[in-house]
């Protein structure tokens, strides 16, 4: 099929999922066109046959805010017409579903019927989308998509609670290329640069926004390192990084916590991690936790949002109530203090990711594209 993918080209989970999906579809012989304002960070043009169309914004001094939706919908129309696209799959409702609706109307005037699949990712519903500033337009865009998917049952339920949705929302879990993370144990040389052989490595990866509660990550680690020789890797950039660094200093952890910034080598970092910490206020899914599990890394997380659908309590890691750093630390120590227990959790974590494998999820999206294209 000929598919257009619209997403945020950043390190965020929605952009990562959209990029991995596009690359996998291209590998299966579909013609995939990315329409974004920058090349997505994980997009690998060399080994995948893909097209990238950049949305350029014309700066004009009259505008306090440049009208990105207009530029995006115009670009969608141009690309759909030029390449005869059959489906537009937009990731993150704001403003992509809205711009897709406009593109669809413009194309209809020219006798072209493009199908729009909207995938809801989380913050487009929970944090931003339901805000009164955007709610009306988000609700409208969801109801006017041909197919709407959500990345967890929890996000589906939350969307139905927060909006008046007339469409059935299909749950399609986020997925992972399990093979990419199969190198666990092959990275000993890099591991030794960060931790001594007797030390455990704990990792946190996020965009360091308030919802990630990065200070809780430091607090959990503070308790863990009292009992278990360990190091903490903090991967990512964002507004709360400074607060986390200050707390690290205050707790005397400067030599044990490394802030490494954004990375495109997540799979390699996770290969030598023993535990992943995700104490978020909410996560519609928690893609970073799934990536960790694929690299045999058990997860200590909160029990909020869609996390219980990904991280299985007592099996792939543990779930705690929001803000209960003592419980999270206690659970982490239970796993880390015993080699046998750690190995069991590592294997369980890896096994559980089969449920979210690319081979299982990709055909679901292909079926969605086919069925909505066939429908009138
Ligand atoms: O977590 C973020 O702040 C980024 C956001 C995004 O749009 O990339 O992540 C959301 O989508 C991811 C991919 O579906 C999910 O794994 C994350 O759980 C979700 N974030 C939240 O719900 C906070």
From TrEMBL:
Domain Glycosyl transferase family: from-to ranges: 190-351
GO biological process, one term: bacillithiol biosynthetic process
Keywords: Transferase
GO molecular function: glycosyltransferase activity
Pfam families given in the database record: Glyco_transf_4, Glycos_transf_1
InterPro entries named among the record's database cross-references: Glyco_trans_1, Glyco_trans_4-like_N, Thiol_BshA
Domain Glycosyltransferase subfamily 4-like N-terminal: 11-179
Keyword check for Transferase: yes
Protein name per Swiss-Prot or TrEMBL: Glycosyl transferase group 1
